Amino acid sequence: MSHTACASRTRSAAEAESYNCGTHMRTAIFCLGLLLCELNAYAAPRTHTTVLGRWHPVEIRTETGAVQSIKIRRLIIDGHIREYTTGPAHEITERMFVVRRAYRINDALPGESRKLPAWVWRLAGWMSVDRQTGHISQLPLPSFDEEVSVASWYRDYVAYCGLSDDGTKTYMMVAQLGKRKAILKKEFSGPACGAPRWERDPMRVTFINGVEKTGFIVRARGADLQPENTEEEGP
């Protein structure tokens, strides 16, 4: 074999080896980049921005046609309007809060000649908002009536007066977030009450219906009727 042919083969082998090394290097860098992206996704989850906007006065209309003035705020997550809320929010944990929902519904009748929907505001139930994930959950509070019930929160417990499905019975209700069954559901006579009153040490809730007061000691698995205090209360 001539010296020229031998040199040519040597150069070809060197070039092939250099090409293979370059290809393997690019593949290794690409795989390393994918691995770093995946590790970053686990190490640094996306941060969501949750904001309750400014108050705006609106009028709501009940099923009976009565009109009531309330104030609403926009629930804004990552710059997008996700829901409308009313009333103060209650902080459950550092990452989760609950707030009551308001919404608009089209009140136009089929026979009405309208170019635009006839939007009216209505009250809804409560929802929870996770600041870390941006997730919103509607809370299925048992026997909660959107027009009558007034909720009072303490920790992850909520107390209110609820109604039966046919509206003929009224209940004193205590529910805990994450549990489907109510901790307390006790029927009482009379109209629905206002916001119940919470106390701690021990955890106690009092339902006030006119001049009548009914208190319960609340535990994780139930609620016990608190004997009425015969001592006169202070001012």
Inertia-based shape: flat
Sequence of secondary-structure elements: HEEEEEEEEEEEEEEE
Number of domains: 3
Structure summary, number of beta strands: 15
Identify low-pLDDT runs: 2-8, 230-235
- Given helix and strand content, the structural type is alpha+beta
Largest sheet: 7 strands, antiparallel
Instruction: Provide the β-strand percentage band.
Output: 35-45%
How far is it from the N-terminal to the C-terminal residue, by CA?
Answer: 116 Å
Number of helices: 1
Mind explaining what this structure looks like?
- With 235 residues, this protein is α+β, with helices and mostly antiparallel strands.
- The protein has three domains: 1-44; 45-139, no CATH class; 141-235.
- The chain is built from one helix and 15 strands.
- The strands form three sheets. Strands 1, 2, 3, 4, 5, 6 and 7 form a seven-stranded antiparallel β-sheet that branches.
- The longest helix has 41 residues, at 3-43.
- The termini are far apart.
- The model is unreliable at 2-8 and 230-235 (pLDDT under 50).
